[in-house]
């Protein structure tokens, strides 16, 4: 009975959310006709007109680049974060030191200066050591997002692994498992369930921070919105649609994470 009530309430919430969303979108397209001063210009994103339809298609074409950029950066961030986190839990001080230095150093650098350094400075550094590597806007943004987020991901891994009882490690040793096997088969599967929500938050963070890639010419959502503003001179309307695009993207990600949590049994709310 309780589960049925929860399902009904959830369905009601979704219905209300959809109703409000369509109401807001309807008002956006009605407003231009109600303004005689010419301060509104929602026609630029009105799908009923050829101009609005073309503009919306132009903006939506940035979805693919944003999603691909965010996914690759998130995967790299999780890999780097795990590599950094494991030595950071060593009992040896000198093994822990590089991990702590990396985390503190990366966390102290703002994302935008790091993006500029990777895109403009890293190729010069590589060329000085004999590596002629050209970093385009796509990979420059991926490298920056992955490095910037990896420090936070490492701390998430560390807290998740340390939350597992030491008895689990001792039990694994008694059955003959080495450190790598213990981590792979015993500790990490349990830790992943606990750190899935914060990892999902970090992925959402990457999706939002991917907007910074627009300043180096990456053709993602924000860059396309900026270009459209330059040609249409309607920042209010275009950036409103941009915000709605990010909102929809984040809501989809959140829904997917909730489903994954239930699938893995990490959502204790049932």
Explain what you see:
It is a single chain. With 270 residues, this protein is mainly α. The chain has two domains: 1-34; 64-264, MetI-like fold (Orthogonal Bundle), CATH 1.10.3720. Helix content is 78%, strand content 0%. Helix 5 packs across helix 6 (137-162), helix 8 (179-209) packs antiparallel against helix 10 (235-264) and helix 9 packs antiparallel against helix 10. The radius of gyration is 23 Å and the shape is flat. 24% of the residues are buried. Mean pLDDT is 83; it is low at 1-37.
Provide the descriptors you would attach to this structure in a database record:
270 residues; mainly alpha; MetI-like fold; 2 domains; 10 helices; 78% helix; flat
């Amino acid at each position: 009975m309780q589960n049925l009530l929860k399902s009904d309430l959830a369905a009601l919430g979704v219905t209300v959310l959809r109703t409000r969303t369509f109401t807001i979108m309807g008002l956006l397209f009605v407003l231009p006709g109600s303004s005689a001063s010419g301060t509104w210009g929602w026609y630029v994103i009105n799908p009923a007109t050829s101009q609005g339809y073309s503009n919306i298609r132009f903006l939506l074409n940035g979805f693919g680049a944003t999603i691909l950029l965010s996914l690759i950066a998130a995967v790299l961030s999780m890999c780097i974060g795990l590599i950094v986190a494991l030595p950071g839990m060593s009992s040896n001080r000198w093994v822990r030191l590089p991990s702590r230095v990396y985390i503190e150093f990366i966390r102290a650098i703002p994302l935008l200066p790091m993006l500029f350094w990777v895109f403009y400075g890293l190729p010069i550094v590589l060329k000085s050591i004999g590596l002629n590597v050209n970093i385009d806007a796509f990979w420059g943004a991926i490298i920056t997002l992955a490095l910037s987020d990896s420090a936070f991901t490492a701390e998430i891994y560390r807290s998740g692994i340390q939350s597992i009882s030491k008895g689990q490690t001792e039990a694994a040793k008694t059955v003959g498992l080495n450190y790598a096997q213990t981590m792979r088969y015993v500790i990490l599967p349990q830790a992943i369930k606990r750190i899935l929500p914060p990892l999902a938050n970090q992925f959402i963070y990457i999706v939002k921070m991917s907007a910074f890639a627009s300043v180096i010419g990456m053709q993602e959502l924000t860059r396309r919105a900026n270009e459209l503003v330059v040609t249409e001179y309607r920042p209010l309307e275009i950036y409103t649609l941009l915000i709605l695009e990010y909102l929809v993207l984040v809501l989809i990600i959140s829904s997917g994470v909730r489903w994954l949590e239930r699938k893995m049994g990490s959502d204790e709310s049932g």
